[in-house]
Specification:
This protein is mostly helical and about 350 residues long. The protein has one domain: Ammonium transporter fold (Orthogonal Bundle), CATH 1.10.3430. It has a two-stranded antiparallel sheet. Helix 2 packs across helix 3, helix 3 packs parallel to helix 5 and helix 10 packs parallel to helix 13. The longest helix has 24 residues.
């Protein structure tokens, strides 16, 4: 790699023999090196989701594991077919990105969903959410959320039927249904569960989103390992806390408090595992914070004033669409100042 030493014109001098010239060392990007690989990062994400997987199997039985394997299989199958169509090697099947998409999608689905539906969701997540854009790193939207949005359009009843933990008997759907905490709070359809049940996960909801404790443990692991940036979770959770606090203060009989919203639904799971997606979020530090704040605000607007009790999926997809604009607005000033003209 060739490099050039640049010195100011009025200070150019010949250095003594063996002494390097003083100035700026210029070379082509990238200028920062890191030992991280896609495979290692994806392994860390899967490892961080293990507490949620264990909690899901504990709460919903083998059905949770079957759903996770089904969506992951759909993702891997779609990637293999897309690689074959485009004449590419199948090396991307082992980088872990399709597996992560499958697990995240599975965790955002209700445990009573049919396995063929979850497989189809995984295939659409990779095929429509990733491969049509060119593959890993080129997609505009979060692939897992694209898959879930597709399932929501095609199977709305199945996507809004929730299972009471501990009532699933077999791989087939044979369980007792109940309202989710967010539905109970929004439509006043029954008593609200306590914070302890929300924290541990003893409530109805999606496969990997019911236990706030499991999502928090996995999320903090990602942040401390520097796999996930802290800015998106802080921005999202901070904005949601402020918004829900003001709403609860203005109408406590109508809106639940901030702790209820933070520990229910996909709030923590979305903050640490969905909003931190490398591709769909801005690359600039300030842009990532703005992205997280935008997701948090949109989630609360949808939860409190929309027709759907949860809003993480829609909020993330909307902010994905705004990411190019956020990046343009949040670009740092280059060394030496902005170029004139």
């Amino acid at each position: 790699m060739s490099q050039t030493i640049i010195t100011p014109p009025d200070t150019v001098r010949t250095p003594p023999s063996g002494v390097p010239a003083q100035g700026l060392l210029v070379g082509p990007a990238p200028h920062l090196a890191d030992a991280s690989t896609t495979r290692r990062i994806m392994f860390e994400v899967v490892l961080a989701m293990l507490p949620m997987f264990v909690a899901a199997v504990w709460l919903f039985g083998a059905r949770a594991a079957a759903l996770t394997f089904s969506t992951t299989a759909g993702c891997l199958a779609a990637e293999a077919v897309a690689n074959r169509i485009r004449g590419r090697s199948q090396a991307s099947l082992t980088d872990g990105s399709a597996v992560v998409t499958g697990v995240i999608l599975a965790f955002s689905l209700p445990p009573g969903l049919r396995l063929y539906q979850s497989f189809l969701g995984g295939a659409v997540a990779i095929g429509l959410g990733k491969m049509v854009f060119g593959g890993l790193g080129q997609n505009l939207f979060n692939p897992a959320m694209v898959g879930r949005a597709f399932l929501m359009v095609c199977f709305p009843v199945a996507l809004t039927t929730w299972i009471e933990p501990g009532t699933l008997k077999t791989i087939g759907v044979d369980a007792v249904t109940q309202a989710t905490p967010l539905a109970a709070a929004k439509f006043h359809s029954g008593p609200l569960p306590g914070l302890r049940d929300l924290f541990l996960g003893n409530v109805g909801g999606c496969v990997g989103e019911t236990s706030a404790l499991a999502a928090l443990l996995g999320g903090l692991y990602l942040v401390f390992r520097r796999v996930a940036d802290w800015r998106q979770p802080v921005g999202m959770l901070g904005a949601a806390t402020v918004f829900s606090s003001v709403a609860h203060w203005a109408a406590p009989e109508r809106f639940a408090g901030p702790l209820y919203h933070l520990t229910s639904g996909a709030m923590l799971f979305g903050a640490f595992f969905i909003a931190t997606d490398y591709v769909g979020a801005p690359v600039t530090p300030r842009g990532r914070l703005v992205f997280g704040i935008g997701v948090g605000l949109l989630v609360m607007v949808i939860r409190l004033f929309g027709g759907y009790p949860e809003g993480v999926m829609y909020a993330v997809l909307l902010m994905n669409a705004l990411t190019p604009l956020i990046e343009r607005w949040s670009l740092p000033t280059p060394f030496g100042g902005k170029a004139s003209g």
